[in-house]
Design goal:
The complex is a heterodimer of chains A (444) and B (311). Chain A has 444 residues and is of the alpha/beta class. Helices cover 28% and strands 22% of the residues of chain A. In chain A, α6 packs parallel to α7. A five-stranded parallel beta sheet of chain B has the order 7-6-5-8-9, covered by helices on one side. The chains are: A alpha/beta (444), B alpha/beta (311). At the A-B interface, α5 of A face α4 of B.
């Protein structure tokens, strides 16, 4: 952990982006203690006499953004400490520019009661590099059979609910979950996978799975759950969020619901925007994810969904696993890949370089949009504003670097992007006014 | 010769070029009299050690490889999944590396997971021969099926071969499909829609060479041979095999009569008599080549072992 004593920081000469206010201008940002004290044109800030001389960060040619949020990460604590910990996972997040992450409840035991929600938050307060908020389980043990204490977990700080890793399969239980989340004023985040259609499925269903002799996980299994849940949610009006969209057909379902004014949102991960099922050839277990990689036409439709605002959130589904959990046959291998450390340049490649959206919108989808979804905008997160929390990510948009999974801060090495040369990187990550990651210091 | 390895691994017939297939078939053909015990075999593999590494039940394939190896003077060690360190949690790659470190010259392996043979082939620097990986491939079965057809029909190119049964879960069907279409035969896959999907027409040589049909009676008159697959209840078709399977797809004597006079009946074994094939068909003296397939299996495995170990 790179740390500086509490004091002040002057970030000079960067292109300041605050999508929430529409700010896009070159200037300086002064941080005093854990707050943004001033945002002015270049050279205009006069540091007050009662503030210690600020540490200076040269941001010429760089983007000065609100701290990035990733609302979909797996930090594996408790119970999966051989894969990742709150400390390593948030060190990875900080290195990727994320000042806030929301961790999923598929731990052992599952995060399905207020005690565990508070355990994670307290341990994160002590050890974490980035801020950690909990997305708690919607049902007891994530078993889909008994409603979890959603109200009391919300009161304990849970920012959303999900049985992620598994779908809430039963329609009857889903209805109860949506009602409880609505009452608690928290979003429900669905892992959309109709279990009987995807049973045993390890990759996209179709000719390639047929050729490889692997069981298919069809698009229909995702789309059917989205259709069902949208129906169930009518008349309830819970904030319903579709996790990790993979199927092009799902985009149309979310788009139609949003056009009807229903509170439906969706997220997309870097791998579903950049990789296709072809990555499974040779049984590369780093191409095994849930939901699976699909085809180029799905990527096209996902990008259309990003371009037209159907998909509002970028989230990585950071899913670290131990080497031995991936160095096995494809059927036995764990699902998922690590995501937070290389997400920013990958999104840039998929979305900005491809002309789908501009930098300002991409940053919005990594800051204010996810912050609003989980209510963290009410704490000022996801914005860069005077008086607000000093969670800031400085991005060098042109920095070229090579993804090296063996050098990740994450304990996970399961990354299909290993060896890719990418452009763009968080060079300073500031949480509560403290530099928790600095690319220049890390290099030396 | 297959994805990602430089050794003479035989992991599947998918992507194997026609010259290589033909060379293996020719070599196997030359070994037939030796496999049948009519001529003595040269001890080309004397002093070599073949590891039979089987994680799924198998009698005939394991014995066939052992017979082939021993005919050529090699010794065979057997390792079964159960009772080995695999059941103590060791990974497949670790176990394979241990076997290789014992000085074994080649690994013949069967495993329930598709891609398991490739995983092992990447873990060790000795050749690996796939004796069946999940639903993926069973290349020596494919070769022995093709050799049987070639000897009986005289040629493969232009022939039409039907494969009937649980295609979705069959490695035998996949290897046969890849090998036959590469050599210019057309393949018609037949079964209920729950067991054979349209995606099969988009693998291998594609729709010009592969058809999917659900009406066996309509297809039979077109065929030069029909390959009946074992209905593999142990590979759990998930409730997809209905009680009318035999009525719709079982090869009864009446159905056999719909085949052209020259057409052959094949089955990779073991037979479910009275389910996918009736005894009167399986034991038919002129049409059934089921035991000939078994004999060809030894010859094919002799040729494959020699190719893997001697190039």
């Amino acid at each position: 952990m790179i740390s500086a004593p509490m004091g002040s920081l002057l970030i000079q000469g960067g292109r300041i982006l605050d999508p929430a206010s529409g700010l896009d201008a070159t200037g300086d940002v002064l941080v005093v203690d854990d707050r943004v004290a001033a945002i002015e044109t270049k050279g205009a800030i006069r540091v007050p006499s009662d503030v210690p001389p600020p540490e200076r960060i040269d941001a010429e040619g760089r983007l000065v953004c609100p701290g990035l949020l990733d609302i979909h990460v797996h930090l594996r604590e408790p119970g999966g400490e051989h894969k990742e910990s709150l400390e390593t996972g948030t060190a990875a997040a900080a290195a990727g520019g994320f000042t806030t992450v929301c961790c999923m409840p598929n731990t052992r035991p599952a995060l399905d009661n207020p005690t565990l929600v508070e355990f994670v938050q307290l341990k994160a307060d002590r050890l974490a590099h980035s801020r950690v908020f909990v997305v708690a389980a919607a049902t007891v043990g994530r078993q889909g059979e008994q409603l979890a204490p959603i109200g009391s977990m919300a009161a304990s700080g849970a920012v959303g609910f999900s049985d992620d890793g598994d779908v809430v399969a039963s329609a009857g239980m889903m209805l109860k979950v949506l009602q409880a989340c609505r009452a608690a004023d928290r979003p429900f985040m669905q892992h959309c996978q109709e279990p009987t259609l995807s049973a045993g499925g390890v990759m996209n269903a179709g000719p390639l799975a047929t050729r490889l002799g692997l069981r298919g996980w069809p698009r229909l299994a995702e789309e059917l759950v989205i259709e069902r849940d949208i129906r169930l949610n009518r008349g309830i009006g819970c904030a319903y969020h579709v996790q990790h969209l993979s199927s092009g057909g799902s985009v149309a379902l979310v788009r139609a619901a949003r056009e009807r004014g229903e509170p439906v949102t969706a997220e997309v991960s870097p791998h579903h925007l950049l990789l296709t099922e072809e990555a499974c050839v040779g049984y590369d277990t780093n191409a095994k994810m849930n939901p699976p990689l699909r085809a180029s036409d799905d990527i096209r439709q996902l990008k259309e969904g990003v371009a037209d605002g159907t998909i509002t959130v970028l989230a990585t589904d950071h899913a670290p696993h131990a080497v031995h959990e991936k160095a096995v046959d494809f059927d036995s291998a764990a699902f998922g890949i690590v995501g937070v450390e290389c997400a920013l340049p990958l999104y840039r490649r998929a979305l900005v370089d491809d002309g789908v959206i501009d930098w300002l919108r991409m940053i919005a989808m990594m800051t204010i949009e996810p912050a609003r979804l989980v209510g963290l905008d009410r704490q000022g997160l996801g914005r860069l504003a005077v008086g607000g929390p000093a969670d800031i990510t400085v991005v060098d948009p042109e920095l070229e670097w090579t993804v090296r999974a063996d050098r990740f801060h994450s304990m996970g090495r399961n990354c299909p992007f290993h060896g890719w040369t990418v452009r763009g990187r968080a060079v300073e990550t500031i949480v509560r006014g403290r530099r928790v990651w600095s690319e220049s210091l890390d290099r030396s | 010769m297959h994805l990602g390895t430089q050794k003479n691994d035989l992991l599947g017939l998918d992507g194997v070029d026609p010259d290589t297939l033909t060379a293996l078939l020719d070599a196997a053909e030359a070994r037939v009299p030796m496999a049948e015990g009519v001529e003595p075999a040269p001890a080309t593999l004397a002093g070599r050690l073949v590891a039979n590494f089987f994680f799924e039940d198998s009698t005939r394939t394991r014995c066939s490889f052992a017979a082939a190896a021993q005919r050529l003077g090699a010794n065979v060690v057997n390792l079964a999944g159960e009772g080995s360190s695999m059941s103590k949690g060791e990974t497949l790659a670790d176990t394979a590396r241990n076997i290789a470190a014992m000085g074994v010259d080649t690994i013949v392996m069967r495993h329930a997971a598709s891609g398991a043979a490739l995983l092992v082939a990447r873990a060790v620097d000795i050749p690996v021969i796939n004796a069946g990986d999940g639903r993926h491939e069973h290349p020596t079965q494919g070769l022995l099926d093709i050799l049987t057809l070639r000897r009986r029909l005289g040629s493969i190119r232009g022939r039409t071969i039907g494969i009937v049964g649980d295609i979705a879960n069959s490695r035998v069907a996949r290897s046969a499909l890849f090998g036959l279409t590469t050599l210019g035969a057309k393949v018609i896959l037949v079964g209920p829609p729950t067991l054979v999907g349209a995606a099969f027409t988009r693998i291998g040589a594609g729709p010009a060479m592969v058809r999917v049909e659900h009406d066996l009676d309509a297809v039979l008159p077109e065929l030069d041979a029909v390959m009946m697959l074992r209905i593999q209840l142990e590979r759990a078709a998930g409730g997809a095999i209905a009680a009318d399977y035999r009525q719709l797809y079982g090869l009864s004597p009446d159905r056999m009569e719909r085949l052209p006079a020259h057409a052959l009946v094949m089955h990779p074994g073991p037979l479910n008599r009275g389910i996918e094939i009736d005894s009167a068909v399986a034991d038919h003296t002129s049409r059934s080549v089921i035991l000939a397939q078994v004999a060809m299996g030894v010859a094919v495995r002799m040729a494959v072992l020699e190719w893997a170990l001697r190039g």
